[in-house]
Design goal:
By secondary structure, the chain is mainly alpha-helical. It folds into two domains: 174 residues, Cytochrome c-like domain (Cytochrome Bc1 Complex, Chain D, domain 2), CATH 1.10.760.10; 83 residues, Cytochrome c-like domain (Cytochrome Bc1 Complex, Chain D, domain 2). 42% of the residues lie in helices and 6% in strands. A three-stranded mixed sheet has the order 6-5-7. A two-stranded antiparallel ribbon has the order 1-2. Strands 3-4 form a two-stranded antiparallel ribbon. A hairpin with a 2-residue loop joins strand 5 and strand 6. Helix 5 packs across helix 7, helix 8 packs across helix 11 and helix 10 packs across helix 11. The longest helix is centred in the N-terminal third of the chain and has 15 residues. The chain is globular. The protein starts with 8 loop residues before the first helix and ends with a strand.
Amino acid sequence: MRCPDRRLAAAWLLALAAPFASAADPEAVRSELLARERERHPAASPQDLAAGSAAFDPARAEEASRNRPAPGAADAVEAGKRLWTRKFANGRSLAGCFPNGGRGIAAAYPQYDPRVKRLVSLETAINQCLKTHGQPLMEADDPGTMGAVLAYVRSLAEGRKVAVRATTAAARDRFEEGRRLYFTRMGQRNLACATCHVNHSGRIYGDAAIPSPIGAAVQWPHFRDGRPASLQVRIRECLGRMGAAPFPAGSDEITHLEFFLAYLSNGLAVRANAWRPPP
């Protein structure tokens, strides 16, 4: 999937330079982006936009429907459940580190943790639990461990509305950092995430429609060739396509970007473990 070439750079620059209502107010940013998407796609609800490329492509929407549950998802969810409930040497488990055994928690991540003064993704929270109990950590981009656990835990939030919070000054600062990164040009192609997803959502480039940023955090992990890939994995892939060096898996930068997108998905129902066609 490609974005427009440099011949449209002037148009992009004007669109990207358009001021938001308040850079410090996450709700104002979300409201303005929602308004832009309503104007561009008046027939699509925010939950429709959460379908990604399928929101603008009936053929892909039909194929996605045929592939739900996604091939490989059931096996990954079962593997994730085993890892989630496995007893550590001290008798505890990942499930014991989270309220209600983890049911519904995925809809509230990422979240700011004042104890560590950092934004914490679900992946980070899982590894914090493992570290506390003397267990080996999981690689954030490993589909066989972290990917499987995410597939299971997010399945426990199926249908729950995304509800990430940015009510403190510290959380708003992290949202703003994610917004800044999303709108910053970087890499050899001099593109920003927003160049495609904000300015050209719904347009066809390559063989797919460009997804809207609204609802972008709803369907993860995606399954492609039977393997789960988290939103953080996808962000890193997109940065690579922009010709930028991807931020490390699990880094603050990736988590800030995820937080920004998750906030834009507030109020939309989680639809975990969606199918994605091969690249």
